[in-house]
Amino acid sequence: MSSMSSAQKFFAALLPGRWMEAMEADSRLWIVRCSCGCARSVWELGGIRYKAVGEPRWFMRCPQCGRRSWHKVSRDPLSSPPHKT
Question: Would you kindly state where each structural domain of the chain is located, as residue ranges?
Answer without folding.
Answer: 6-75
